[in-house]
Amino acid sequence: DVQLQASGGGLVQPGGSLRLSCATSGLYFDDYAIGWFRQAPGKERERVSCISSSGGDTSYADSVKGRFTISRDNAKNTVYLQMNSLTPEDTAVYYCATEHSRSIYANCYAINNWGEGTLVTVSS
Question: In 3-state terms, the chain is what percent helix, strand and coil (to 5)?
Answer without folding.
Answer: 5, 50, 45
